[in-house]
Design a protein that fits this description.
With 165 residues, this protein is α+β, with helices and mostly antiparallel strands. The protein has five helices and seven strands, in the order E-H-H-H-E-E-E-H-E-H-E-E. The chain has helices at residues 13-23, 32-41, 45-49, 95-109, 124-132, and strands at residues 3-7, 55-59, 62-71, 78-86, 114-119, 136-143, 153-159. Strands 1-2-3-4-5-7-6 form a seven-stranded mixed sheet, sandwiched between helices. The two termini are 28 Å apart.
């Protein structure tokens, strides 16, 4: 069954929030505090203000993935990907790549020349995925205290260039 990619809507928030809450739950980490922490990663405002540059993936009418991103108002040459998720049973079929490629095309159409994003230094799957998509790790690798004391990140940048690169 084929996947449909479409622009996000604020009404998608419940599905996106539920995905963040369940797709990132580790065994033994489903506490009220962990749920609040996951919810804080992606509040409703993202779909109130950036739905037009964010994407939802559906297969047979079912929500199977999303990409939350925007074209930076302060860095007119850049777009930024804030959060991406693909349901476990839809992974390894190219859906993540399709979401990114659609966002890259949107960035090029908006006159952007690069895309930035971050991930956790412990998320080796994400690091490998971004490298496979042509992202370069910025600087010497891990950026200590990037998102506050003790919250390190790996920052990526990718030139948009022509389609496919």
């Amino acid at each position: 069954m084929s996947v449909c990619l479409r622009s996000a809507r604020e009404s998608d928030y419940a599905a996106v929030a539920a995905a963040v809450d369940t797709w990132w739950t580790l065994p033994g980490h489903d506490t009220p505090a962990a749920r609040r922490e996951r919810a804080a990663l992606l509040p409703r405002l993202w779909l109130q203000h950036f739905a037009g540059t964010s994407l939802v993936a559906e297969r047979g009418g079912e929500f199977v993935g999303f990409l939350i991103g925007f074209h930076s108002p302060d860095r007119p040459e850049e777009s930024y990907i804030h959060f991406v998720g693909v349901r476990a049973d839809a992974r390894t079929a190219g859906l993540g790549r399709a979401l990114y490629e659609r966002f890259f095309a949107m960035g090029r159409a908006a006159g952007r020349v690069r895309v930035r994003c971050i991930t956790s230094p412990t998320n080796t799957v994400s690091i490998g995925f971004h490298r496979a998509l042509g992202f370069a790790i910025e600087g010497a690798g891990e950026k200590q205290d990037y998102d506050g004391p003790g919250v390190d990140r790996v920052a990526f940048v990718r030139a948009l260039g022509d389609a496919g690169g």
